[in-house]
Amino acid sequence: MTDNLLTRGQLERKISQDIQSLYRNHLGHQPSKVSCQFFDTKLAIIVEDSITNAEQILVEEGKNDLAEKVRSSLDNAMQPELKRVIEGNAEVKVIDILSDATLDTGRTGIIAVLSEIPKVRNPESIPKAKV
C-alpha cells in the first residue's frame, strides 16, 4: 500500500516543480527556485525571484505602492491554482493560503494550512510543528 506513495522529499520536490511551472505558465515568469517544506499540517513555500518584469519596472520608476498592489493582486489571483497544485499532489484539503512578497529581495513566502498531514512513504520524516 505504501509502495506507491512518494517520500516527503519527493512530494516537496514535485510541488516545487509544479509551482514553478504555474508561475511560468500563468505569469510568463520563471522563478529561479521554489522550495517547499512540510511542517505537520503546514506547508512552507519560498519562491525565489518571483517578481515579474512589469513589477520590477514599476519599482525602478519609484512606483513601489503600485508594484505592491500588483504583486498582492497577482498573489490573490494565483491562490486557486496554488490550492489546486497542492491538493492535487498532497491529496489533502487546503484550508487556507497565506502569502506575501518582498519586492526588495524578489522573494514570495507562502504558507498553506492543510486539513491533515499528507500521507507519505516515510511519515516520520515530516517534522512536527512546535507550539
Q: What is the name of the CATH architecture?
A: 2-Layer Sandwich
Q: Write down the overall mean pLDDT.
A: 91
Can you count the helices?
3
**Looking at the structure, what is the overall shape?**
elongated
Summarize the amount of helix as a percent range.
40-55%
Number of domains: 1
Number of strands: 4
CATH topology (fold) name: Threonyl-tRNA Synthetase, Chain A, domain 2
Low-confidence stretches: none
Estimate the strand proportion.
15-25%
How would you describe what is shown here?
By secondary structure, this protein is an alpha+beta fold. The protein has a single domain (2-116), classed as 2-Layer Sandwich (Threonyl-tRNA Synthetase, Chain A, domain 2). The protein has 3 helices and 4 strands. It has a 4-stranded antiparallel beta sheet. Strand 1 (33-39) and strand 2 (42-48) form a beta hairpin. Helix 1 (8-27) crosses helix 3 and helix 2 (53-60) packs antiparallel against helix 3 (64-90). The chain is elongated, with a radius of gyration of 16 Å. The protein starts with 7 loop residues before the first helix and ends in a 17-residue tail after the last strand. The mean pLDDT is 91.
Walk me through the topology.
Elements: H1 8-27, E1 33-39, E2 42-48, H2 53-60, H3 64-90, E3 94-102, E4 107-114
Antiparallel strand pairs: 1-2, 2-4, 3-4
Provide a compact summary of the structure.
With 131 residues, the chain is α+β, with helices and mostly antiparallel strands. The chain has helices at 8-27, 53-60, 64-90; strands spanning 33-39, 42-48, 94-102, 107-114.
